[in-house]
Amino acid sequence: MKKFAAILLTLALLLSIGAASADELTTIKVGATTSPHAEVLEYIKDDMAALGYDLQIVEFTDYNLPNDALVNGEIDANYFQHLPFLNAYNATVAEDKQLVAAIPVHYEPYCIYAGKCKSLDELADGATVTITNDPSNETRALFLLKDAGLIPLPEDATVEGSSLTVLDIVDNPKHLNILEVEANTLPSTLDDADVAVINGNFALAAGLSPAKDALFLEPTESDSGKTYTNYVVIRQDSVDAPWVEALRSCLQSDKVRDYMLNNEKYAGGVIPAF
Length: 274
Prior knowledge:
Layout: H1 2-24, E1 26-33, H2 34-43, H3 45-50, E2 53-60, H4 66-71, E3 77-82, H5 83-90, E4 100-107, E5 111-114, E6 128-132, H6 135-147, E7 177-181, E8 195-198, H7 200-205, H8 210-213, E9 214-217, H9 223-227, E10 229-234, H10 242-251, H11 254-262, E11 271-272
Parallel strand pairs: 1-2, 1-3, 6-7, 6-8
Antiparallel strand pairs: 3-10, 4-10, 4-11, 5-8, 5-9
């Protein structure tokens, strides 16, 4: 009986030690889109815990929500966006609410995926092409269509310095019907559209592989590859916070690099930016 009581006491002590350790962790909430952002964060949760932080992941499916959530203090950081998207957001808010790109993590090549048409060579006159409707990514989508030889754009237009819409297309020799839709709905348009230009994270979440399924892949050495790196973004008051450096060390690690490059699901769709 005494031996049994001793075992119970030992278990109770172990549980109390574990609970105390968990209580000592500082909670950090990071907003992210599901794939690959939330998956990458999930992969480093134990590493952050070892540094004293309870990394909690808040998932979003709408690009329009994570920055407002960060400004409002609902989360401590977000990880879903590139600099053009962040700059477009910062232009809409007061200077003291503008957000800061803190940690470059990865780049997702934009791709043209097959809908009803299975080859760009077979794209018919008047074919329907779906692209995102948010300003920074629409510019990128139009440049991808240009690189694929489908449309011309103004000669002075650049990926980083322009904000283009379908109205800026110089000529449309194939009379393409280019439809602007919400980015998160792009995969669902493949049933009706001939082709779609899909953001990397939403393509991955829909089970699409850039290496296997893309009809045309954005070159990683292009201006887009340099411009559209995805960052962890923080508020101005967090710039010197110790948890930011902890998160940087965990994300910019050989472990994460190998995870991105060797994950069969990503298959060339997630490229480390460090």
